[in-house]
Structure formats: structure tokens, C-alpha cells
Design brief:
18 strands; alpha+beta; about 30% strand; 5 helices; about 350 residues; seven-stranded mixed β-barrel
């Protein structure tokens, strides 16, 4: 049954704030090369076949059971792994390397981008209920991760020829996309992009109990942060306006909203200490962010998104336009195949 909290949240968003948000911009951008490790803030990001280039392109898995992927949910210290990108261009194919560093490790780990995956062991992994294929990055990477987390692990990189399709109910029909584009993702939990609203974070922090460390955007692991542009006199961006968006334009790139993003305990993790999570964060979100009609017992923050095309670039400072809004999300049926 849809809760009173959900009804009130939807009323506040759509009844009290019926106007489209405007005067918006991309305020920050993030990529997360290895799933669940420290975020890399960037000034621009190229859209690749799986989302932003290099985002969640690598994943740590159990050495014995490749269907078990490793995240901050079990190992909160993963957030302490810093990621440095050394790029020859803006894409994996143009070459470069990823350098990982972590407390207690006597040396960093360098993962070079590969021109070919020939000779590498193929790995059949799983992210939640989705089968996804990758290639093993070798023993040096495996040993580094095993030492850091104290468990036998392997590091894999996404097979570019393997399609990890998105949930159909949350994906627009093929005619919405540019010719040849197949909506898919790499090792993200479910979708290529996560969009978050600065004003929404402010409200979350205002509701946290006294003594709780305020959350940063990095706690929620988004890719695109939306804020006011600072120059439009009547700029308008209410907290949680994103709950009703169906399509937005970021610079020259069209993004379709797939679903609200339901949250686990990871936003409560300590970004500095990496030593577990503060349950007060989840409890706070559960009190007022159960706003998905089809998932009334899950708290939401941010929205998952899919790009219309591939190859474009989104930059910090790009204008954001809300193209279509006013939808009410229902996680059971989605918003794209039942309207």
C-alpha cells in the first residue's frame, strides 16, 4: 500500500511546485572507474557505449565465485581507494592508464588501457540479476586487491563486445535513440548515469539528527550534479524536483530518466575513515524518501538516466533544460512502456 509519506512527498513536488525547474546547469561531474571506489571529479566527460567513458568499467570480484561482486556494502574501506586517470584522449580506446592508491598499501597499482584483450581470461560475472562479461586484469591486480581487503579477489574490466541490456520497463523504445545506439551499461548497479540535485542534498542534511556528519554528493555516487546557474534571475530548482523528470537536456545531450534511484546503506559510509556506515542516514531517508509508488519500502535519492546518443560531451557549466516532467514513478511498471 502506498504510504502517507509517499502521497505527501508527491503532493509537495507536483502540487506546491508545479512549474518546471529552470535556470539550471551542470554543477559537477563524476566518474568512478572501479566500481565502489573513490570518485574522480572531472570538468567534462564523454558519453561512451556504457555511460560516461571509464565509469564503472572495472569491478572487483570474488576469486572463487565470480558471480559475487565486491562493493562498499561489504567492504566500506573501498571508498578510501583513490583513482587517478592518465589519459591520451577522452576514451578508453585512445589509451591511458588508471592508477589506484590506498592506505596501508606500499605501492600503487597501475592498470594500462588495452588495445586488445587477446590472451586475457574471460570472466562471466553477475551484477545483481544481470549476467555481464569481462576480462581478468591479471595476477598483479588480483594480489593488490587481495592484500588491501584481506580476501582472495580478482579485478575485471568490461568486455566491450558484451551487451548488458537495461530493464525494458525503464528504457524508452528504440525510436528514442540515435541510430545504432543500444542502451546498456557496464558494471553500474543498473543504469548508465545517475543524476542528483544540489537542493535535494541540502534537505537531506537538514533532516539528519544532530551529531550526524553531513553527507556529501560523493556519498551518493552520482555522475551528474544539477544546480542553479547563478545568472538566471528567476532560476527555479526545488529540492526533489528530479522526482518528476522524464527527459532533460544537458548541453547538447539528451538524457532520458529511467527511474528513481533506490538507496542501500552506502550513502551512510564514512568517506574519510572508510570504517562502516552511520545507520542514521538510512533511517532519515526512510522517513521521508519512500516516494516510488511501486517500491514503497525503499528510500530514493537521485534519478537513473540513459543517453540518447553516444560520443557527445557533457561539461561542467553546461545548461540543463527540463524537457519533460510531471511523471509519477512506479518501480513495478516503469514510466516508458505503460503510458
Amino acid at each position: 500500500m502506498w504510504t502517507v509519506a509517499v502521497v505527501l512527498a508527491q503532493y509537495i513536488t507536483f502540487a506546491l511546485y508545479p512549474r518546471k525547474a529552470k535556470g539550471l546547469k551542470v554543477s559537477r561531474l563524476f566518474v568512478h572507474p572501479v566500481k565502489s571506489c573513490g570518485a574522480v571529479e572531472v570538468k567534462s566527460a564523454t558519453i561512451g557505449q556504457f555511460g560516461f567513458e571509464l565509469d564503472r568499467l572495472w569491478m572487483v570480484i570474488d576469486a572463487e565465485d565470480h558471480t559475487k561482486f565486491i562493493t562498499q556494502r561489504e567492504f566500506p574501506s573501498m571508498v578510501l581507494v583513490t583513482q587517478q586517470l592518465v589519459l591520451n584522449g577522452s576514451t578508453y580506446a585512445e589509451g591511458g592508464s588508471l592508477i589506484l592508491s590506498a592506505p596501508g598499501m606500499d605501492k600503487s597499482l597501475t592498470i594500462k588501457f588495452r588495445g586488445s584483450f587477446k590472451g586475457l581470461a574471460k570472466v562471466n560475472a553477475v551484477v545483481w540479476d544481470n549476467a555481464v562479461e569481462g576480462f581478468d586484469e591479471g595476477d598483479e591486480a588480483a594480489n593488490w586487491w587481495s592484500k588491501f581487503l584481506g580476501k582472495r579477489l580478482r579485478l575485471i574490466v568490461k568486455d566491450p563486445n558484451n551487451v548488458r541490456a537495461l530493464r525494458e520497463k525503464n528504457t524508452p523504445t528504440s525510436d528514442h535513440f540515435e541510430k545504432g545506439v543500444v542502451p546498456q551499461t557496464a558494471f553500474a548497479d543498473g543504469y548508465p548515469f545517475l543524476v542528483a540535485n544540489e537542493e535535494s542534498l541540502k534537505v537531506v542534511n537538514s533532516r539528519l539528527p544532530s551529531g550526524t556528519t553531513p553527507r556529501k554528493m560523493e556519498n551518493f555516487r552520482p555522475n551528474i550534479i544539477v544546480g542553479k546557474d547563478g545568472k538566471t534571475a528567476d532560476a527555479y530548482l526545488p529540492a526533489f524536483a528530479e522526482d518528476g523528470w522524464k527527459a532533460i537536456q544537458a548541453g547538447s545531450e539528451r538524457l532520458f530518466i529511467a527511474s528513481l534511484c533506490t538507496r542501500c546503506q552506502v550513502p551512510g559510509n564514512d568517506l574519510v575513515l572508510g570504517n562502516g556506515y552511520d545507520a542514521r542516514v538510512s533511517r532519515t531517508l526512510m522517513k521521508f524518501r519512500r516516494v516510488d509508488k511501486g517500491k514503497p519500502y525503499e528510500a530514493c535519492f537521485g534519478v537513473n538516466a540513459i543517453s540518447k546518443g553516444v560520443g557527445g560531451v557533457i561539461r561542467v557549466g553546461d545548461a540543463i533544460e527540463v524537457v519533460e516532467d510531471g511523471v509519477v514513478h512506479n518501480g513495478k511498471v516503469g514510466i516508458w512502456r505503460n503510458s
